[in-house]
Predict the 3D structure of the following.
Amino acid sequence: MIGLGHYLILASILFSIGLVGVIRRKNLLMLFFATEIMLNAANVAFAAISSYHHDLAGQMFAFFIVAVAASEVAVGLGLLILLYKKYGTLDLDEFTMMKG
Amino acid sequence: METFAFYFLSISIVALFAVTVWSRNILYSMTSLAAGMVLISGLFFILGADFLGVVQLIVYVGAVMALYAFGMMFFDATGVVKEKNAPAMTVFILGGLTALMLVVIFAAPSIANGAPAFYPPMAGANNPQAVGLVLFTKYLVPFEVAAIMLLVAMVAGIILAGKKMDRSLSKIKDAELEGGEAKDSK
Amino acid sequence: METLVYTALFAPLVGSLFAALFAMSPKRQMTGVVTSILLFVSFFSSAKVLMHVVEHGEVHIKLMDWIVAGDMYIPFGFNVDAVSAVMMTVVTLVSMVVHIYSNGYMEHDRSFNRFFSYLSAFVFSMMVLVMSDNFLGLFIGWEGVGVCSWLLIGFWYHKEDVGRDVNPSISPSWAANEAFIMNRIADLGMLVGIFLIYWNVGSLQYDKVFEVVPGLDHGLLVMIGIFLFIGAMGKSAQFPMHTWLADAMEGPTPVSALIHAATMVTAGVYLVIRANPLYELIPEVSYFIASLGTFVAIFAASMALVNRDLKRIIAYSTLSQLGYMFAAAGLGAYWVALFHLAAHAFFKALLFLGAGNVMHAMHDELDIFKMGGLKKVMKWTYIYMGVASLALCGIWPLAGFYSKDTILEVAFNEHTYIIWFILWLTAGMTAFYSFRLVFIAFWGDERYKKLGFHPHEVQNYVLWGMLPLGILAVVFGWHKESFMEFVTEMLPAYEMSEHTHHMVATLTVATTLIALGGILLAFRLYSVRLRRDEKVEKSKIYKVLSNQYYIPIFYKNTFSEPYAKLSEIAWKEVDMQVVDATVDGIANIIEESGDAARQAQSGNLSDYLRWIAIGAIALAVLALFAALKS
Amino acid sequence: MENILSVLVFFPLVAAILGFLVGKKSIRVYGISVATIEFLLTLWLWFAFDNSNGGFQFIEYIPLVSEFGINYYLGVDGISLFIVIMAALMTLVGIIALNVKKDLKNMIITLLFLEVAMIGVFVSLDAIVFYLFWEFSLVPMLYIIGAWGGELRLYAAIKFFLYTFAGSLVMLVGMLYMAYVYHSVSGVWSFAITDWYALVLPLSIQKWLFWAFFLGFAIKVPMFPFHTWLPYAHGQAPTVGSVILAAVLLKMGSYGFVRFSLPMFPDASVAYITPVAIIAIIMIIYTAMVAYAQKDMKQVIAYSSISHMGVIVLGTFAMNAEGISGSIFQMLSHGIVSGALFLLVGVIYDRRHTKLMSEFGGLALVMPKYALIFGIMMMASVGLPLTIGFIGEYLSLAGFFKISPMLTLLAGTSIILGAIYMLSLYKRSFFGPVTNEANAKLPDLDSKELTALVPLVALVVWLGVYPKPVLGPIDNSVKALVTFMHEKAQTSEAKSVIVVSKRTKEAK
Amino acid sequence: MLQAVDISMASLNLITLSPMLVIVSGALLIMIIDLLKKDMDKSLFVMLSILVLFVDFGATLSLSINERGFFDLMLIDGISVLSQLLILLASMLFIPLALTQKRFHEYSYPEFFSLFLFMVAGFQFMVASDNLILIFVGLETASLALYTLIAMHNTPGSHEAAIKYFTMGAMAAGFFVMGSAAIYAVSGSVELFDVAKVLQQRMNEAGIVLPIIGGAVLLLVAIGFKVSLMPFHMWTPDVYEGASAPMAGYMSIVPKIAMMVVAVRVIGFYIDLGMESVRYMVIALAIVTMTLANIMALVQLDVKRMLAYSSISHAGFVMAALALDTTKAYSGIFLYYGLFLFTNLGAFAMLWISRHKKNRYHSRFHHPYEKFSGLISTSPMGAVIMAIFMLSLTGVPPFSLFWGKMYIISATVDAGYIWLAIIMALNSAIAAYYYLKLIVYMFLKPPVAGIEAVGVNSSRPLVVIVGIAAFVTTMSVFFMEPMLTYINYMVSVSGY
């Protein structure tokens, strides 16, 4: 029998994968993929909890997370386009002017 | 059945997302991400969150991935991406520890039992109905805020990707600006 | 009566301030005259006060409150009793003479006005010292005379520092500082004594203190006695704080006469006399005082034996005579000490003033070996110095005979034969070096001629001015009995035992004999010409004596130089390298760690993201530990 | 004029702000006028002051943040009265003697701001208002040192600021804790010092509060080993900066001990007499030695300040009326004397642009008036009787003698060591022949400098001869303070150490 | 069939939404105006925004306290009103800074103003709810707008800043939702008041502590990111440097206030649960933040970057108060931010006034210290005002932040954390150094040769804003009393 725990562990693993991606990726586009994974992990968790608790708030949350993710993509892509147009690269190693 | 579906889906999702994260090819990466998303919606269906599953499919696979694909084309990044990835060791340790942390948090035995349901699905309603009921009563405000957020995102996207950003007024001397545009307030 | 007392006290101050008005302008004879006249006024008043005290007993007046804090109540109060009246008279008399004398002596000095200002200020301080009715008032005068002494020793401050071999006093300003600092060391002792008195008696008024003193713990009294005496040692230049006195001879000679012979240096003796009710109670300290005095007497005399410096010889003799006074005071014969103090003031001042005449004539040359035969050109000076030296040697019927002889009798009477013997021996030495000086300078061949000096006698009014001292040096001793009667109203009378009475004649003869012996020896050696003995001059003892037992060098090596070095270390090594460096070090560590921490802010987004993960994990670990602990 | 204290505080403030509008040419006259009026007002304060009253007078009380117990609460007693007068006087003297060419206007305005802070510190009876002025005083001083200072002026200014700032922040924590304790006992918030006086604290709390306040005060005083900012500050500051720093700002620290530490923590103060006294003695002896090693005239006086402050601290911790009165009197005396000495060094620095003693020699020949005034101040500094310097030093030492004769003996070396470095300074600079050609033609003091210095000389002599008008009110207040401490003390040790003078007892 | 849902309008308490409604309508109005008529002057939008904000301010002020509205979603308690007022105040001060002498890219968009108003609305939602969903959505709305506003400055720095901020924000959002998931998992609710109720009952269950604390850890990451606590602060200096000065100033205040309110709600309830470990975490974060940020600020070459680190340090300082969980501490937070608002915005506005389009003094920085060298002689009033801000940030009385610092330290002392108070005090002393450094440059160093006027970007509105800020900073002592009374009332009435 699959319990809530299973789903939550899956969510944890997905989140970690996303995190790994965020940490390791240097290409901003691919990095954004990883952030989507992180949000999706939360979605899984919420959906599972919601289902096991018979409570809709989790689904609500997941729903809004989806909305947020979509908005983020819009803004993020806008930014990426801006960057690409200006600098012709999306490698974040190139964006290290400000430091210290 | 459910067990099988769960394991199948989760293993697939993990694998796909791993590809997303590790692949050097942006196309593979994106495709596996999209596939993963689709499979996640499968999980939602299993969990009885039909509406969420649909939203996931439409928004993620439909909109988000389309956007990404569009972006990808724009960036002309179909091929292999060269990046100096962070040292594997660091990534592994950090990723592992985070996973451990999360698992410890979420795998606690007491999580599964005992929490009361504050907004149980209405008797007799199917999932979309139930969701709709809650969403348009209790969560109407966030819903509207989300609408604003999407509006913001849209405006932001338009502005950021817009042509007007090509020329930066913040960098051009005012004297040079005088000719082209009307005088700013002063 | 009050008016007289105040006149006596403030006339010198007025004179000083008057002269100070012109301190920075060129010489004005007026300052000298005015101060001298005011000194005469002061003397006159003092004498009248003395009369009054003789007739009506002591006068006690209060001018105003000075320090009032907590239970501390210190007024400017003045108490003129027999002792202070005598001191006042002696001080003003000698001062007056010195003032008159200085008019001539400082004639050509461009700081003429300033000199008189200082000199009168000194007299004022000395008057405060002797007239005050409490210990702190005494301390005012005590420090005041110290400052005036500093000013006057360093009067010719423009002179450069030179090596010890050229001038053992290095320079007037050096000598002045030495004197001041040395005195300060002693003053600390005195202050501690005053504190002890205050916290145990609750008052610093003499009358209250001496009223309470008999009831106090003996150990405490010993402490008070010792600390007060430390103060006295400094002012009266007792061993081991004696070095400054010889160096103080750098000051103008009238200063040496007034301050470093007649008045200030006797302040220590005055203190012991003043505090006699205290010292009566602590015979062991008194005995120590007597022993130290005796030691200083012979110690100083020994250095005088070989010195070639006209003023230093007299300075050592002063030191030696101070030793006599302390011996007397320590043995309980306070009035004798006071008597000797007064007599000494007269003849020693005379001696110094005579020496001043010689210096004046010899253009400030002090080496007696370069003089000789001066009696022909400076007859009156010769006579004055001769009389003063005879008085110093204790030859009948001059003043020194009476006073010094009495001290020897006291020493004998107290059965302290060693003290007596040493003092007796010292009397011989005194006679020798005094007349060595007289014979070398005034007799024999005229060596100065070869050196191109043209000595001449000083102005007549100066010589006249010295006359009172000359007369007193002769006749003062004749009034011993009346003096004793007068002062023993205030001081404990000293009774000789039967045995001593029998021995008086013998003792007198013994003393006179050894004095005469000394004079004869000097006569034999130096009366015809300067006879120098290579062997003696190269002997170790001679060297030790002429180098003042190497004490100044010892002080330099043990105190002043290490102190300077230690100070340097304290500044450069400790303050800069340790204390300040620690402060700066902390600041630097902070700044450097800032630089180090800044490295984390690499500018690379990837690193930033990683830091978030690290932070999350660290927080989790922290939370885990915290949760486990609680 | 019931609210004269407010006038005293705000008059210079308003004057400073108006000063911006005054033309550059007339600014000196403006500054002198303002400082004179302020000084006269302080004298008026003294006139109106009731000498027989040992408590606070001219009290003003306006709630500022009543929610949190912060009130505009002013008052003076004998302890603070004369420091206020001195602060006004030294500002006046400083402005008169001012000899900066650059930005004179800014300098004068800054000095007026500084005057606000200085007077504010000494008249405030609310801890937060006190702290406000205390901290604010740093700012003008920072500017004075930094803008008109010597070569290392920035380093010196920053060091001065940060050091004192750090110390006073810890003190602030102490104050806040004090207020907290007051709140938990009485139920209302109050930062009023008089309220805090009434609070009897357990010894354990007293002890740590004592050290918290101590740190703030000790750095300001400055006590060893927190003193190293001072030589830099003095060494680099312009003359007027040094004058005010030495004369008034340092006094804030020692005043703090009297105003806060003693009456609030009598038991802790008594318990820590020995360590504090040892620090004070280190200050006295060690800094006197360091002063002796200095090559620069100003540094000698700077270090001598530390040494003298050691005596002040010692006197404060004598716990009897003699010592505390003495230490307060010594604050005044040190203020006037060291202020004057710094002015004097400034005089020679203006002429020769160096302060190294080796550059001088024989100045007494060239500048006799200068040498005379310097000599008088030097003698006052080494504590010659009949000058102002003696009374405070004597009383402080006498007071502490009651606590420990041995330590007093050690501390008493100050009169010897002080003479050593001061006389050697005087000898090196003023005595001997004129060796340096540059010194041969130096002009003597001019009328401006004399105007600044002669009143100080007069004061030095007057208060040395007749201190009663000043010492009397001080003593009255101190007696009240000591009696209060005695009654408040809990431990038997403190009861026995804090000595109420007999006359106070009799009066009862 | 489902029965109709019947809800009375009165129970919705729609008034609680009025402030947000006002501002959203305002934003839309601006967009509509832009649609209808192009090329309107930016001053129009500035004034409109101010008006909107003003009406919003009034609406917020007229809210009655301690009401819930809209299915208990909206929470109008004292701190929500208080923080909204602060946010609006800061926004009103911020907006006129658009009226510069020089022209900058972002102000050429009318959308800038509507985005700005949307952002404010987002923040208002964030603070006016204890529902994690609404908080999250509000937060993201505001954040997304903010990223855009930063990028719209359109300089390489601002692009880099936006992307850094955005990416990290996305990651932090992940942490936020995971944290919420953890809370939801143990309590079955995403509404903090329900959560608290449930958890009170469940506290004794074995193993429950782990997810609770875990949730706290995850949420703290997100909170820490937004209020820039170490080590989640890494974006702050870069973003502040890259963004325009007023935006940087704004970011140092408003998002932090908003998130601080969320933190008050979240952490407050944790501490109420008796989770001492959460308290320790917060204290540890606070100490690390204030100390490290301080020492890093010491070595900065650019004033703006220094101010960035300084605002991190201030955040750490305030965060320490959060751990105390006393009314006084919470009041302290708002008092502090209320005062910090004027001072810091004033300081950044001063930087803005001195902004050149080209970097004249340093290849990278717009505001290196050298730029202000000798300002007292070239622009005395500017130097004095900047010095007032710096002294206030240092905590020198009588300038405003002193009172805030004092109050918070006092709260710390009262709560028994004397050691923490001393750390805070010493940190203020360290901080004094870098503020002083600017003062030293302005007052004590000679002007750099060939310097041109520093106040190139100055205009009357900017001067007025700076004047207001300086006035408040200087005269703060006089309105401490009403301010403190009000804040205390508002905080205590909210039950904190």
Summary: Chain C touches chain A through ten residues (CB under 8 Å). The beta strands of chain C are 59-69, 72-80. The radius of gyration of chain C is 31 Å.
